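Morning F.,

Quick status update on the modeling queue. The single chain you submitted on Monday has been processed. Sequence for confirmation:
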Amino acid sequence: MIIAEEVSFFYPDGTKALDNLSLTILAGESAGIVGANGAGKSTLLNHLNGYFLPDDGKISIGGLAINKKNIETIRQQVGLVFQNPDDQLFTARLYDDVLFGPLNLGMNKQDVDAAAEQLLRNLGLWELRDKPPSHLSQGQKRFAAFAAVLVMQPPILVMDEPTSDLDPRNRRKLINLVNTLQSTKITVSHDLDFIWDTCNRVYIMAEGRITAHGATREILSNRELLEANGLELPLRLQPDFPVKI
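Structure tokens below.
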């Protein structure tokens, strides 16, 4: 269970990014966090594995407070897939990127090799294991970033705009992947159709606060609520517009 209690956070320039925010995400839940640009979504994600720490309030995971003392334990529990894969892939060889996290956590090399091979084969990346990440396509980089996190088998997976650089085929591949995972999943995305397909609960953010939450289909089919928070209906729910020539 992830619990945020009255969390506030200020950037160094004084900008208030989180404003007395509270939420609870249950173990095993797949939660989507949506909102307009500047709502504080990515800032919240960066609190969930201790990249940022609250200025006020507290966040706990499984009853363990996120603070400097517990930061290493927390980061073993929470796997974060960055919005930009280039921020996550940094070695000269894809396979080394996948091994980096688990080996630094002290996991057994033989077990890691076996898990990494299986994961890369499942994602269609095994034949690319010796390539530099910079030589991969954007879609391949996206799945490589997922592999580098999933190989550590984190009980909580956090994803920041996971479909931002995917074509329709790879987007569907990612939906299928996410839906097979048994971990607690938290997704920030402007792609509300992806949220519809992968999340059972949605939290709307605006001005650093949670303004509404509920079952995915209930929240994402409420046009008035979405528009009040700077959002639109998922594409699947929008009426067809006539094409003007």
